[in-house]
Amino acid sequence: MTELTETGLGLSLTDNFQSMKRRLSLTLFSLWLIVLSAGCQRSGDGITVAGSTSVEPFAELLAEEYMHEHSGTHIYVQGGGSTAGIEAVKTHTANIGMSSRALVGGEKNLHTITIAKDAIVIIVHRKNPIDDLSLIDIRRVFSGNARSWKELGGAAAPITLVTREEGSGTREAFQKFVMGQDEISLESLVQDSNGAVRQVVASNPGAIGYLSLGLVNDQVKALRVAGVEPNLTEIQKGTYTLVRPFLFVFNQEPEGEARSFVEFVLSLGPQRLLQKEGLVPVFSGLDKE
Amino acid sequence: MKMRFKEKFIEKSFLLIAFSSIGILALITFFIFQEGLPFIWKIGPKAFIFGERWVPGQGSFGIFSMIVSSFWVTLGALLLGIPFGLACTIFLAEWTPPLVGIVMRPAIQLLAAIPSVIYGFWGLIVLVPLIRNSLGGPGLSICAGSLVLGLMILPTIISISEDSLRALPPSYKQGALALGATHWQAIWRVLIPAARSGIVASIVLGMGRAVGETMAMIMILGNAVKMPSSVLDSARTLTTNIGIEMGYASGDHRQALFATGVILFFIIMALNTLAIFLSRRRLRG
């Protein structure tokens, strides 16, 4: 009896080793495959779109739609940030760069196409009695010069600032449109995504923050800026001014597959899709900025 | 013969795998230093470590406030973790009826298995509003971070210090009791001092865990880049600085984050070396 069990144990042990070995070689083989396929990506057909992580999710959505309609082509979408995307276009490692900021300095000789616009909205807690702030007030608040809601006509409660981290495109746009030369107070709480900012503002009655229009929901209250409601009509009229472009960046007038993708992005269906996702669509064709 | 070859093959391939993990560690170390050290030299070690302003957009890279914040958060965690951890250890090693121990030990190990993002979420939803409403401030604070970290380091402290208590020769306790000491006197005057180095090592390892924790701290600390002036202030530690800004950083900013990693690396190395040194002494003693 004992002998039998022991043999059984011995057998199953070798079996185990063998299956382990098999599994190991399988793992190695699949690893090798991954490395191989990663190497193939660049040489294969298709175009690479790289840059801003704010634009990335929308570009991925558009690429999926595009590949659905044009089977056989492939569009690779990568993040990395606006600066990295522009750099990638310059060095020809990407066909299209994505930028969530206007081009500056030496970048200006690149060709750009605005694929949509994104508005930045100032948000506060739902129970905050304040509905409207002027740009100057917002700047005073975020530079740390106004510390109590009382100074702005609200309750006598301290203001908690919520901002995005350094390097974020949303922060960059907020800095440019609202703060100008002033610095966002170092006392501000820093959150690393639109969702986290919304979460903190939604749970703290004294908080104020900013995020993309598409991500505002009824957990928080969007403020009017100098009397202007942040909505699609006001943005298209040009009265709501905290709007940044989402750009595609090229070395020259786009050709071939890249051109076909851009034309697709600017057509009615995809633009409607972007609008549904909370962006401000641009229907006018290829305009050079 | 075939069996023998198989054995050798398995042995060697496992050796290779074991060494490859060390190789990867070496690669990571090399990479962090290669990216971070030139930057530290560029702006000067003193300006980097003792600079109080961190505004990458304007080229200010000083991480002193983060070093201080890391220190305060860790200290707070230890203030909570040590008394609770030791009480739990003594109870488990000395007083626990076997049946209770069977339930309690796995429960404590489970505490170590909970992903840190869950701790962070719990802290954000439960602790943060509690602190904001009862103590004031934004709630996202050193206080909240320390409470969560204190909980997170409990399993480290308990399991290692319990091992060191159990490793003591039974004659220590028997001798103390034979001399007329009460059970508590035997624990407090004889067993704890005898196991001291192991207990201290467990605390140092817990400290290492506290210094290194990132995800939960990003969610709870609020990440403000300034010198904290009270425990109700928001703060940013070394790890959260890397975690929160890595996504968008490029150029100098990215290198500065690697440089932050270099400093963190030294701190963790120092703590672990200390822990190894202390636990070695236990074996000899």
How would you sum up this structure, described in words?
- The complex is a heterodimer of chains A (289) and B (285).
- Chain A has nine helices and twelve strands.
- Chain A has helices at 2-43, 56-69, 82-90, 135-142, 169-179, 194-203, 232-237, 256-266, 268-276; strands spanning 47-51, 75-80, 96-99, 111-125, 132-133, 160-164, 189-191, 207-212, 220-222, 224-225, 243-250, 280-281.
- In chain A, strands 1, 2, 3, 4, 6, 7, 8, 9, 11 and 12 form a ten-stranded mixed β-sheet that branches. A two-stranded parallel sheet of chain A has the order 5-10.
- Helix content of chain B is 80%, strand content 1%.
- Chain B is built from twelve helices and two strands; from the N terminus they run ααββαααααααααα.
- In chain B, a hairpin with a 4-residue loop joins strand 1 and strand 2.
Short key terms for the protein model shown above:
heterodimer; A: 289 residues; alpha/beta; two-stranded parallel ribbon; elongated; disordered N terminus; disordered C terminus; B: 285 residues; mainly alpha; MetI-like fold; 12 helices; 2 strands; 80% helix
Could you give a quick summary of the protein structure above?
The complex is a heterodimer of chains A (289) and B (285). Chain A is α/β, with parallel strands linked by helices and 289 residues long.
